[in-house]
Amino acid sequence: MDIALARHWVQAIAVAMDEHQDRLTQLDSAIGDADHGANMHRGFNAVLATQVSYRPDSVSQLLVKVGSTLISSVGGASGPLYGTAFRAAGKALPGTDPDAAELLAALRAGLDAVRELGAAAPGDKTMVDAFLPALDAFEEELRAGGDLAAAAARAARAAEDGARATVPLQARKGRASYLGPRSIGHQDPGATSTALVFGALATAAAAR
Ligand code: ADP
Ligand code: MG
Q1: Which of 46, 143, 153, 191 could potentially form a cystine with 163 if both were Cys, beta carbons 3.0 to 4.6 Å apart?
Q2: Atom 26, ligand 1: which residue's CA is nearest?
Q3: 79 Cβ closer than 6 Å to some ligand 1 atom
Q4: Could you tell me the CA-to-CA distances from 46 to 11, 39, 176 in Å, in that order?
């Protein structure tokens, strides 16, 4: 991944959050406070605005900047969680253009940071339920000899499956957990937006 691809990824995320804002809002209105669409939209628009004049030296720096911007522009749980993920991923990258394996290791560091901050385990009906299967699928594809585009495409499908698999779960973290068993039967908004983040990576990588 070079800086141009990282920029394309971020732009594709912003486009996806724009296209899917209403859906994310609807999902969060069922089991939360109906702000997830607006939060993600605001956050990635702020990221886009910083990108106009920002000239990072590395993908590492760029992702750290994405994370800091999300933290400072998004209220709600998702801002700090996504922000921390991008910051941690950026910090884990080398200063040179990362290869697919280095990107995977950095994304794992991002997931670890989310889990440390939010204390969510797999099955708690959070973004972790899309993030973790996405990285496992990414890793499997690399092991099978696939390139970044193939790994990202497979990760995106696994994240979508993971998000759908949150429907029958009871939320144990975040606002949705206040509903107890009434959170069952609805797809988690954060897992859904995480699938969009991986879908955007697949789109950007495929355009190479
Ligand atoms: P808020 O819950 O503050 O309104 P958002 O609506 O933007 O923030 O984001 C909600 C999403 O954040 C949830 O759908 C869930 O995926 C994710 N989330 C909430 N709490 C946690 C947590 N402790 N760990 C991981 N993800 C979480
Ligand atoms: Mg919310």
Answers
A1: 191
A2: 126
A3: no
A4: 11, 11, 26
The answer to whether 204 and 15 have CB atoms below 8 angstroms apart is no
Residue 75 CB: number of other CB atoms within 10 A? 12
pLDDT more than 70, % of the chain: 100
Nearest ligand, CA of residue 171? 1
Decide: 43 in ligand 1 pocket, CB within 6 A.
no
Token representation of residue 120: 């969510």
Supply the pLDDT for residue 112: 98
Residue 33 has φ and ψ, to the nearest 5°, of: -120, 20
Which residues in the chain show pLDDT less than 50? none
**From CA 196, how far away is CA 189, in angstroms rounded?**
11
Encode pLDDT of 139-150 as tens digits.
999 999 999 999
Atom of ligand 1 nearest to the CA of 127: 16
Domains of the chain by range and CATH?
3-206 (1.25.40.340)
Tokens of 177: 């957990």
Report the alpha-carbon angle 17-187-205, nearest 5.
40
